[in-house]
């Protein structure tokens, strides 16, 4: 298997108000061609920073990121980014938003309209092309954002907690749709999430990051086979086992992150005040048929965190 | 989050060229543009709005007649309307209105031409902002009318100084709103557009400018109101035509009904211009709902 994306000793240090803050340190890992890699880590560990670097929106302080063997030097249409807050242009219709990426790519006007329609169909929004973002639900907006990123046909899709703001039902159906699209289009996907369930459900592999400064703690293979062909995968005991493994890896990091935050609070330098690990509390219990055994129950989870 | 990002724009303006409350609060007093009302409620609202005006007009007509106020200084409304009609039919009014509108619209139009590009430049390019900020701070805190004598001194009593002072007064709300509009564009939109590899120029054209348009129009609407206010003051000195001239001239000759006719005309014009600009503003910011 060839590496589509390769991080080589990547570090990122921010200097804000005279202080140096090391967000990422010595990140070294690879994403294979056509792979769906989920990335989890405590809040503030540098996941979004890592994604920005890969998207070419900022430059690493140390190390190098390669896409197809060539170093990333800036943004490019070979990588499409999907943000949690959709980032749709509010003055453009859904259709025109999808066309936005195509304009950037220099696709001819006629073809733009056809392609945009095609991708709106693909994400289940046929007939919504003339709606403005404020006329769409959160789930629909995220579908538009996904359609926009798919439309200019990037090899790599970078997604930063794309479903975090959505309700459980919408999230479930978008997860399945994303998997279907991925299976059909062979894109390489790097998917950042706070949900352990989501990571195990979506990822062929799950990379777990340490608390700040973020490093890759471990990458876990999730050999669960095709998600879309398995009925109710989440209640599978193997699913629960992976879920527990990642949960354990994360718990230690969350504790560390909390200690860090407390120290920061104490010194009055708290950068961000956010729920420390909303993922643990938020991640859903298996939908049904939860089995007794070593698998963590959600009570167990919350008790462990708070 | 995405939606609230727009409602907080006034607060997020950078400290330096922070617009003054009056000029900047782009949302102040704006009823939701497309708030839907039921027909009955609409009639009710219209009745409510006109009630106060009707009362004022009634008082204006009756009080002088009952000698509750001196009719020499405030003639009854009917007399004023008569005077207005005479002015209108003799073509005098049209002549004054034309002179006034020509000044107002030239100053206003030139202000748009100057202030929008300048505001975009200052909002988008940090170095330009740093260079010009101190200057802007000094001048925007100087009332336009305080500078009127200076304009007259330098540019003379003719049209140039009048148009120039209107231009000057109108430029500020447009300039400050344009700067604020550019500065407060949702950073996520910029980031997302950058991730598509858009060049800075195209990024500006496709994201920053459209995002700033509603705020720019708020500035333009405010400037429209200013253009009338300043116009009258400018016409009080050294004009030979115009509504401001009509008002002062009538007052000087103790032609009190004519004076009020001029005042009524100017407020009617102000009202119409403002309504037109409000419509225009809504037309360009309909996406900024929710
Ligand atoms: N531009 C910046 N300047 C200074 N510090 C920054 C900047 N961007 C991020 N940071 C800091 O770097 C660290 C990592 O931030 P990042 O947003 O990547 O975390 P994250 O893992 O995405 O968090 P979350 O899960 O909450 O989204 C944080 O401590 C953050 O405060
Ligand atoms: Mg993040």
Would you mind describing this structure in some detail?
The complex is a heterodimer of chains A (306) and B (290). Chain A has 306 residues and is of the alpha/beta class. In chain A, 38% of the residues lie in helices and 22% in strands. Chain A is built from nine helices and ten strands. Chain A has helices at residues 47-55, 94-105, 109-122, 138-151, 168-185, 196-202, 237-266, 278-282, 298-305; strands at 3-16, 19-32, 36-40, 62-67, 70-71, 79-82, 156-160, 188-192, 205-209, 216-221. A six-stranded mixed sheet of chain A has the order 6-7-8-3-9-10, sandwiched between helices. The radius of gyration of chain A is 20 Å and the shape is globular. The model of chain A is unreliable at 268-306 (pLDDT under 50). Chain B has 290 residues and is mainly α. Chain B has one domain (80-288): Orthogonal Bundle (MetI-like fold). Chain B has twelve helices and no strands. The longest helix of chain B has 36 residues, at 200-235. The model of chain B is unreliable at 1-34 (pLDDT under 50). Classes of the chains: A alpha/beta (306), B mainly alpha (290). The A-B interface holds A 55-57, 74-77, 79-81, 83, 85-91, 100-101, 103-104, 132-134, 141, 152, 165 and B 1-3, 6, 188-189, 191-198, 202, 206-207, 210-211, 213, 287-290. The complex binds adenosine-5'-triphosphate and magnesium ion (MG).
Counting DSSP H or I runs of 4 or more residues, the number of helices of chain A is 9
Which architecture name of one domain in chain A does CATH use? Answer: 3-Layer(aba) Sandwich
The count of DSSP E runs of length 2 or more, i.e. the number of strands of chain A, is 10
CATH superfamily of one domain in chain A: P-loop containing nucleotide triphosphate hydrolases
CATH architecture of chain B: Orthogonal Bundle
Q: What kind of sheet is the major sheet of chain B?
A: none
Judged by helices, strands and strand pairing, the structural class of chain B is mainly alpha
